[in-house]
Specification:
By secondary structure, this protein is an alpha/beta fold. The protein has one domain: Rossmann fold (3-Layer(aba) Sandwich), CATH 3.40.50. The protein has twelve helices and five strands. A five-stranded parallel β-sheet has the order 2-3-1-4-5, with helices on both faces. The longest helix is centred in the middle third of the chain and has 20 residues. It starts with 17 loop residues before the first helix and ends with a helix.
Protein backbone atom coordinates (compact mmCIF):
# COMPACT_ATOMS: atom_id res chain seq x y z
CA UNK A 1 0.00 0.00 0.00
CA UNK A 2 2.55 2.59 -1.16
CA UNK A 3 0.07 5.49 -1.08
CA UNK A 4 -0.08 5.16 2.72
CA UNK A 5 3.69 5.08 3.29
CA UNK A 6 3.97 8.79 4.22
CA UNK A 7 1.59 8.16 7.14
CA UNK A 8 3.29 5.07 8.60
CA UNK A 9 5.62 6.11 11.38
CA UNK A 10 9.18 4.86 11.15
CA UNK A 11 11.84 5.40 13.78
CA UNK A 12 12.36 9.15 14.22
CA UNK A 13 10.52 9.98 10.97
CA UNK A 14 8.89 13.40 10.73
CA UNK A 15 5.13 13.58 11.12
CA UNK A 16 3.21 13.93 7.85
CA UNK A 17 1.75 17.32 6.99
CA UNK A 18 -1.54 18.56 5.58
CA UNK A 19 0.14 18.66 2.18
CA UNK A 20 0.72 14.90 2.34
CA UNK A 21 -2.94 14.17 2.99
CA UNK A 22 -4.06 16.63 0.28
CA UNK A 23 -1.86 14.90 -2.30
CA UNK A 24 -2.91 11.36 -1.40
CA UNK A 25 -6.64 12.14 -1.42
CA UNK A 26 -6.54 14.09 -4.70
CA UNK A 27 -4.15 11.73 -6.52
CA UNK A 28 -6.13 8.62 -5.60
CA UNK A 29 -9.59 10.25 -5.75
CA UNK A 30 -10.44 8.97 -2.28
CA UNK A 31 -14.05 9.27 -1.14
CA UNK A 32 -15.28 8.76 2.42
CA UNK A 33 -18.68 7.28 1.53
CA UNK A 34 -17.20 4.89 -1.02
CA UNK A 35 -14.43 3.72 1.30
CA UNK A 36 -16.79 3.36 4.28
CA UNK A 37 -19.22 1.22 2.27
CA UNK A 38 -16.38 -0.97 0.99
CA UNK A 39 -15.06 -1.27 4.54
CA UNK A 40 -18.48 -2.48 5.68
CA UNK A 41 -18.50 -5.09 2.91
CA UNK A 42 -15.15 -6.50 4.05
CA UNK A 43 -16.37 -6.42 7.66
CA UNK A 44 -19.35 -8.56 6.64
CA UNK A 45 -16.96 -11.14 5.14
CA UNK A 46 -14.82 -11.04 8.29
CA UNK A 47 -17.92 -11.75 10.40
CA UNK A 48 -19.13 -14.58 8.15
CA UNK A 49 -15.73 -16.27 7.95
CA UNK A 50 -15.23 -16.14 11.72
CA UNK A 51 -11.51 -16.95 11.62
CA UNK A 52 -9.85 -13.54 12.02
CA UNK A 53 -10.40 -10.36 14.04
CA UNK A 54 -9.55 -6.65 13.85
CA UNK A 55 -8.58 -4.21 16.59
CA UNK A 56 -8.54 -0.53 15.60
CA UNK A 57 -7.07 2.04 17.98
CA UNK A 58 -7.59 5.80 17.89
CA UNK A 59 -5.27 7.91 20.04
CA UNK A 60 -5.25 11.69 20.06
CA UNK A 61 -5.41 14.78 22.19
CA UNK A 62 -8.76 16.32 23.13
CA UNK A 63 -10.85 17.73 20.24
CA UNK A 64 -8.83 15.91 17.56
CA UNK A 65 -12.03 14.30 16.22
CA UNK A 66 -11.92 10.72 17.51
CA UNK A 67 -15.67 10.41 18.16
CA UNK A 68 -16.80 11.95 14.87
CA UNK A 69 -14.25 9.92 12.91
CA UNK A 70 -15.52 6.67 14.42
CA UNK A 71 -19.15 7.69 13.74
CA UNK A 72 -18.46 8.54 10.10
CA UNK A 73 -15.99 5.83 9.13
CA UNK A 74 -18.02 2.89 10.48
CA UNK A 75 -21.55 4.18 9.83
CA UNK A 76 -22.34 1.37 7.35
CA UNK A 77 -20.99 -1.50 9.45
CA UNK A 78 -23.39 -4.13 10.78
CA UNK A 79 -23.60 -3.65 14.58
CA UNK A 80 -23.41 -7.44 14.92
CA UNK A 81 -19.72 -8.22 15.10
CA UNK A 82 -18.74 -4.58 15.63
CA UNK A 83 -18.00 -2.84 18.91
CA UNK A 84 -16.64 0.50 20.13
CA UNK A 85 -15.01 0.75 23.56
CA UNK A 86 -14.20 4.19 24.98
CA UNK A 87 -11.64 4.26 27.77
CA UNK A 88 -11.93 6.97 30.42
CA UNK A 89 -9.92 7.41 33.63
CA UNK A 90 -9.52 4.00 35.32
CA UNK A 91 -11.98 3.04 38.04
CA UNK A 92 -10.69 1.94 41.46
CA UNK A 93 -11.12 -1.68 40.43
CA UNK A 94 -9.24 -1.14 37.16
CA UNK A 95 -6.44 0.77 38.87
CA UNK A 96 -6.01 -2.10 41.33
CA UNK A 97 -4.90 -4.36 38.45
CA UNK A 98 -2.07 -4.12 35.94
CA UNK A 99 -2.37 -1.30 33.40
CA UNK A 100 -3.53 -3.61 30.58
CA UNK A 101 -6.13 -5.53 32.60
CA UNK A 102 -9.20 -3.51 31.65
CA UNK A 103 -8.39 -3.89 27.94
CA UNK A 104 -7.98 -7.67 27.86
CA UNK A 105 -11.69 -8.47 27.97
CA UNK A 106 -12.37 -5.91 25.23
CA UNK A 107 -10.08 -7.49 22.62
CA UNK A 108 -12.17 -8.73 19.67
CA UNK A 109 -13.26 -12.33 19.25
CA UNK A 110 -12.78 -14.10 15.92
CA UNK A 111 -15.18 -12.65 13.35
CA UNK A 112 -15.40 -9.34 15.19
CA UNK A 113 -14.04 -5.82 14.67
CA UNK A 114 -13.46 -3.67 17.76
CA UNK A 115 -12.57 0.02 17.92
CA UNK A 116 -10.76 1.46 20.93
CA UNK A 117 -11.48 5.16 21.48
CA UNK A 118 -8.32 5.79 23.49
CA UNK A 119 -6.63 2.65 24.80
CA UNK A 120 -3.89 1.19 26.95
CA UNK A 121 -1.61 3.80 25.35
CA UNK A 122 -3.10 6.33 27.78
CA UNK A 123 -0.82 4.67 30.33
CA UNK A 124 2.21 5.89 28.38
CA UNK A 125 0.75 9.32 27.57
CA UNK A 126 -1.48 10.88 30.24
CA UNK A 127 0.21 8.94 33.01
CA UNK A 128 3.64 9.93 31.70
CA UNK A 129 2.64 13.60 31.75
CA UNK A 130 1.01 13.09 35.17
CA UNK A 131 3.19 10.48 36.94
CA UNK A 132 1.34 11.27 40.17
CA UNK A 133 -1.52 9.14 38.76
CA UNK A 134 0.64 6.07 39.40
CA UNK A 135 -0.05 6.35 43.12
CA UNK A 136 -3.63 5.33 42.40
CA UNK A 137 -2.20 2.15 40.87
CA UNK A 138 -0.22 1.39 44.02
CA UNK A 139 3.08 2.49 42.46
CA UNK A 140 4.90 4.85 44.80
CA UNK A 141 8.37 4.95 43.29
CA UNK A 142 9.26 7.66 40.78
CA UNK A 143 9.11 6.15 37.27
CA UNK A 144 12.35 6.25 35.33
CA UNK A 145 13.29 5.40 31.76
CA UNK A 146 13.26 1.65 32.49
CA UNK A 147 9.69 1.85 33.83
CA UNK A 148 8.28 3.32 30.63
CA UNK A 149 10.38 1.03 28.45
CA UNK A 150 8.91 -1.94 30.31
CA UNK A 151 5.41 -0.71 29.46
CA UNK A 152 6.31 -0.19 25.81
CA UNK A 153 7.87 -3.66 25.61
CA UNK A 154 4.81 -5.29 27.15
CA UNK A 155 2.50 -3.46 24.73
CA UNK A 156 4.62 -4.61 21.77
CA UNK A 157 4.57 -8.19 23.03
CA UNK A 158 0.79 -8.08 23.50
CA UNK A 159 0.19 -6.71 20.01
CA UNK A 160 2.59 -9.26 18.49
CA UNK A 161 0.62 -11.99 20.26
CA UNK A 162 -2.67 -10.62 18.92
CA UNK A 163 -1.34 -10.55 15.36
CA UNK A 164 0.08 -14.07 15.67
CA UNK A 165 -3.34 -15.20 16.91
CA UNK A 166 -5.17 -13.80 13.88
CA UNK A 167 -6.08 -10.29 15.05
CA UNK A 168 -4.98 -7.39 12.86
CA UNK A 169 -4.00 -4.32 14.91
CA UNK A 170 -4.55 -0.98 13.13
CA UNK A 171 -3.45 2.11 15.07
CA UNK A 172 -4.19 5.77 14.30
CA UNK A 173 -2.69 8.84 15.92
CA UNK A 174 -4.91 11.79 14.93
CA UNK A 175 -2.44 14.67 14.95
CA UNK A 176 -4.27 17.95 15.58
CA UNK A 177 -2.41 21.27 15.90
CA UNK A 178 -2.76 23.30 19.07
CA UNK A 179 -4.24 26.21 17.10
CA UNK A 180 -6.97 24.02 15.65
CA UNK A 181 -7.57 22.39 19.02
CA UNK A 182 -8.19 25.82 20.55
CA UNK A 183 -10.58 26.76 17.73
CA UNK A 184 -12.58 23.62 18.46
CA UNK A 185 -12.63 24.38 22.18
CA UNK A 186 -14.08 27.81 21.37
CA UNK A 187 -16.67 26.20 19.08
CA UNK A 188 -17.71 23.85 21.88
CA UNK A 189 -18.05 26.73 24.30
CA UNK A 190 -20.07 28.89 21.88
CA UNK A 191 -22.36 26.21 20.39
CA UNK A 192 -25.29 25.04 22.57
CA UNK A 193 -25.32 21.58 20.98
CA UNK A 194 -21.62 21.14 21.74
CA UNK A 195 -21.42 22.69 25.21
CA UNK A 196 -21.82 19.32 26.91
CA UNK A 197 -18.36 18.47 25.52
CA UNK A 198 -16.72 21.61 26.89
CA UNK A 199 -14.47 21.01 29.89
CA UNK A 200 -12.00 23.43 31.43
CA UNK A 201 -9.88 20.40 32.30
CA UNK A 202 -9.13 20.11 28.57
CA UNK A 203 -7.84 23.69 28.60
CA UNK A 204 -5.52 22.86 31.48
CA UNK A 205 -4.19 19.82 29.64
CA UNK A 206 -3.60 21.91 26.52
CA UNK A 207 -1.18 24.05 28.53
CA UNK A 208 0.95 20.91 28.83
CA UNK A 209 1.18 20.68 25.04
CA UNK A 210 4.96 20.25 24.81
CA UNK A 211 4.96 17.46 27.39
CA UNK A 212 2.22 15.63 25.51
CA UNK A 213 4.04 16.00 22.19
CA UNK A 214 7.16 14.53 23.76
CA UNK A 215 5.11 11.63 25.14
CA UNK A 216 3.49 11.01 21.74
CA UNK A 217 6.88 11.06 20.02
CA UNK A 218 8.17 8.47 22.46
CA UNK A 219 5.06 6.32 21.97
CA UNK A 220 5.43 6.43 18.19
CA UNK A 221 9.14 5.64 18.31
CA UNK A 222 8.80 2.73 20.72
CA UNK A 223 5.59 1.06 19.50
CA UNK A 224 5.35 1.54 15.73
CA UNK A 225 6.31 -2.00 14.78
CA UNK A 226 6.16 -4.21 11.71
CA UNK A 227 3.31 -6.12 13.37
CA UNK A 228 1.36 -3.01 14.32
CA UNK A 229 2.59 0.26 12.78
CA UNK A 230 1.19 3.65 13.73
CA UNK A 231 -0.59 5.68 11.06
CA UNK A 232 -0.07 9.37 11.83
CA UNK A 233 -2.98 11.31 10.31
CA UNK A 234 -3.02 15.15 10.18
CA UNK A 235 -6.28 16.07 11.92
CA UNK A 236 -6.86 19.77 11.25
CA UNK A 237 -9.20 18.92 8.35
CA UNK A 238 -11.75 16.46 9.72
CA UNK A 239 -13.23 15.43 6.38
CA UNK A 240 -9.84 14.53 4.92
CA UNK A 241 -8.77 12.79 8.12
CA UNK A 242 -11.89 10.58 8.10
CA UNK A 243 -11.49 9.81 4.40
CA UNK A 244 -7.90 8.68 4.80
CA UNK A 245 -8.66 6.59 7.90
CA UNK A 246 -11.54 4.86 6.10
CA UNK A 247 -9.40 4.03 3.07
CA UNK A 248 -6.54 2.67 5.17
CA UNK A 249 -8.90 0.41 7.13
CA UNK A 250 -10.63 -0.69 3.93
CA UNK A 251 -7.28 -1.60 2.38
CA UNK A 252 -6.14 -3.50 5.46
CA UNK A 253 -9.40 -5.48 5.60
CA UNK A 254 -9.20 -6.27 1.90
CA UNK A 255 -5.68 -7.62 2.38
CA UNK A 256 -7.00 -10.05 5.02
CA UNK A 257 -8.86 -11.82 2.19
CA UNK A 258 -11.74 -13.05 4.35
CA UNK A 259 -13.86 -15.66 2.57
CA UNK A 260 -17.55 -16.41 2.90
CA UNK A 261 -18.15 -20.03 3.94
CA UNK A 262 -19.48 -22.32 1.23
CA UNK A 263 -22.73 -24.26 1.57
CA UNK A 264 -22.14 -27.51 3.50
CA UNK A 265 -22.89 -30.96 2.15
CA UNK A 266 -26.50 -31.93 2.87
CA UNK A 267 -27.90 -35.41 3.46
CA UNK A 268 -30.91 -36.73 1.54
CA UNK A 269 -33.42 -35.51 4.12
CA UNK A 270 -32.06 -31.96 4.06
CA UNK A 271 -31.92 -31.95 0.27
CA UNK A 272 -35.57 -32.96 0.15
CA UNK A 273 -36.46 -30.03 2.44
CA UNK A 274 -34.58 -27.66 0.13
CA UNK A 275 -36.26 -29.10 -2.98
CA UNK A 276 -39.68 -28.76 -1.35
CA UNK A 277 -38.95 -25.11 -0.50
CA UNK A 278 -37.74 -24.29 -4.01
CA UNK A 279 -40.60 -26.10 -5.74
CA UNK A 280 -43.17 -24.50 -3.44
CA UNK A 281 -41.92 -21.03 -4.36
CA UNK A 282 -41.98 -21.89 -8.07
CA UNK A 283 -45.69 -22.66 -7.91
Amino acid sequence: MPKFQPFIHHNNSARPTQQHINEVISTNALNLKKSSKALAKYHAALKAEGKQAVLIIFQALDAAGKDSTINNVFKYCDPAGFNVTSFKAPSKLEAAHDFMWRCYKEFPAKGHMTVFNRSYYEETLVVKVHPEFLKGQGIDKKPGKAFWQQRFDFINQTEAHLVASGTQVIKFFLDVSQEEQHRRFISRYATPEKQWKFNTGDLKESKLWDKYQKAFNSMLKQTSTTNAPWYVIPADNKDQMRTLCADIIKSRLKKMNCQYPTIPTFDATDLQLIDDLVNKNKA
